[in-house]
Amino acid sequence: MTDKEVMNYLSSFTPETLLIEKNKGFAIRDIDLKLIEELRIKGLTEEIIKIILYYVLKRAYGLRFDVVRNMAEKCVLRNIKTRQEAFYLTVEEDFLWRNRKVKLSRCGC
After folding, report:
1. What span, in angstroms and rounded, lies between the C-alpha atoms of 71 and 67?
2. Are 53 and 38 in contact (CB under 8 A)?
3. What is the top-level taxon of the source organism (predicted)?
4. Considering the entire predicted model, what is its pTM?
C-alpha cells in the first residue's frame, strides 16, 4: 500500500480501535491502553501514534512495546510532527529490521 492508501485506511480508526483491529484477535489489555496514553503524554499526535502502531503490528507480528517505545522516542528526539516524517521513520526502521535479520541468518544465530 502507498502512504496515501495507508493513511486513508488509518483515518477510520483511533489508536485504540486500530489496536483492536490489528492485534490478530488478542484481547486488548490495560497495559496496551497505558502504552497509547504514554505516547500521547510524549506529545505525539493521534496520526503519528496510529502510524507507529500500524507499522509495529504489521512488521513485528504483534504489539512489541520495546519497538513502539523506541520509535516514539525517535519521533520525540527528531521532533517528528507530520505523517510524512513518520512514514520516513518507518522506512528507516524497516531497513534496520531487515538488516538485522540478514546478519542473524548469516551468522547462524
Report:
1. 6
2. no
3. Bacteria
4. 0.77
**Residue corresponding to grid cell 489496536:** 19
Query: For residues 107 and 109, what is the distance between their CA atoms, to the nearest angstrom?
Result: 6
d(CA 21, CA 25): 8
User: What average pLDDT is seen over the chain?
Assistant: 82
C-alpha cell read off for 108: 547462524
Residue with cell 528507516: 92
Find cell 529490521 and name the residue. Answer: 97
- Cα–Cα distance between 109 and 18 in angstroms, integer? 34
Find the mean pLDDT for residues 70-87.
Answer: 90
**Residue 105 one-letter amino acid:** S
Q: What secondary structure letter does DSSP report for 82?
A: S
Q: What is the model's pLDDT at position 103?
A: 59
**Residue type, position 91, single letter:** V
1: cell is: 500500500
